[in-house]
Design brief:
With 365 residues, the chain is α/β, with parallel strands linked by helices. Helix content is 51%, strand content 19%. The strands form three sheets. A five-stranded parallel sheet has the order 2-1-3-4-5, sandwiched between helices. It has a five-stranded mixed sheet with strand order 7-9-10-12-11. A two-stranded antiparallel sheet has the order 6-8.
Length: 365
């Protein structure tokens, strides 16, 4: 097992040697520097796990060393040694990224305790980072597996069912047709669930930020509306849009933002009442560009509102339960909006309808 590495930076030789002797007895590898500049050079050549640095040194003090060490590697644990231990000095060093501070004079036991605590934090940070990387790798493997091992063969089965239902393979009895139609409906629902879950797995905030561009809000809404006016007419829902063409442009990724708006408008139609309405409005509000999607649907009980954006959550209302759905649509919407640096809010009155409001940033003039 590799020894923990500690770098001691202090302009007093006796202080450096004392720390080295104490920590070596604990099985810790110790390097020493007599100034902040020398210490930073050593740190960059061979990064330690932990840095012990004196607060008061000529040329470069411990706070500056802590700041530069954090900029070089945020995972290095820094502990400030100070003979001026006050609450104010402790707060100051913590703000610059120091993990802890050790007041002078200190005993060997006090030194060992604070260093051990800092090294434990370093170990936990490493384990946490490794787990995050493992999780990311598992998600990538999951996407590949689902795409190739599940979605492709299910798509092929769906096509076979379509062929059979078109009577190409021969005329079907009424019972056979009913059974195949039920199988097709179940398979269609499963394919939708897989596609929604893949969308959830693929949304990465950093990737969306790289695709942001100035776009007309009206054009975004128009793109999202494609095909939805027909769905509204089928449902008997009046669909109106009020988005002025001269509004400030929004800073969005057009593809994923269109998906957000399309999902919200589609839900407003789907979970609505016959002869109901859906109103889509766009405006500038409180420094944001906002799109409101208001409906006259079943509404959401107040106690359910905090959960509507959770994965797989579906409302308890029996009318909502009648509709096919995966419970992932709003979770996808929220993740995309947050990746844009925006926010989404919902206001609802049970039995009377809901309004979902998407807030995104304006593009620079």
């Amino acid at each position: 097992m590799d020894l923990a590495k500690v770098l001691v930076i202090d302009d007093e030789e006796i202080a450096r040697i004392s720390c080295q002797r104490v920590l070596k007895r604990e099985g810790i590898q110790v390097a020493m520097a007599s100034s902040g500049r020398e210490g930073l050079e050593m740190l960059m050549r061979e990064p330690p796990d932990l840095v012990l640095v004196d607060l008061k040194m000529p040329e470069m003090d411990g706070v500056e060393v802590a700041r530069r060490a954090r900029n070089f590697d945020p995972n290095i644990v820094t502990i400030i040694i100070t003979g001026y231990a006050t609450i104010e000095s402790a707060v100051a060093v913590m703000k610059e990224g120091a993990y802890d501070y050790l007041p002078k004079p200190f005993t060997p036991d006090e030194l060992v305790i604070v260093v051990r605590r800092g090294l434990e934090k370093r170990r936990l940070d490493r384990e946490s980072r490794a787990l995050r990387e493992e999780k990311a790798a598992m998600e990538r493997n999951f996407i590949t597996m689902v795409t190739h091992q599940l979605r492709s063969p299910m798509g092929a089965i769906f096509q076979y069912l379509e062929v059979l239902l078109s009577d190409i393979g021969g005329e079907l009895t009424e019972m056979q047709r009913e059974m195949l139609e039920r199988a097709r409906e179940r398979l269609e629902g499963l394919l939708q669930l897989i596609n929604d879950w893949l969308d959830m797995s693929r949304i990465q905030a950093g990737e969306i930020l790289h695709r942001l561009q100035p776009v007309s809000l009206a054009s975004c809404v128009d793109a999202a509306m494609a095909g939805l006016d027909f769905a509204a007419r089928q449902k008997g829902v009046a669909l109106t849009v009020d988005v002025a063409s001269d509004l400030p442009r929004v800073q969005v990724d057009p593809d994923t933002f269109r998906e957000v708006l399309s999902n919200l408008i589609s839900n407003a139609i789907k979970y609505n009442r016959p002869e109901g309405y859906v109103r889509v409005r766009g405006e500038e509000r409180d420094g944001w560009m906002v799109v409101d999607v208001e409906d006259s649907g079943y509404g959401i009980e107040e106690k359910e509102i905090p959960f509507v954006f959770e994965q797989f959550y579906r409302g308890k209302d029996k009318e909502v339960r009648k509709q096919e759905g995966t419970g992932l649509g709003l979770a996808i919407v929220q993740r995309i909006v947050r990746a844009h640096g925006g926010k989404i809010e919902v206001k609802s009155e049970y039995g009377k309808g809901s309004t979902f409001s998407v807030h995104v940033n304006k593009a620079d003039p």
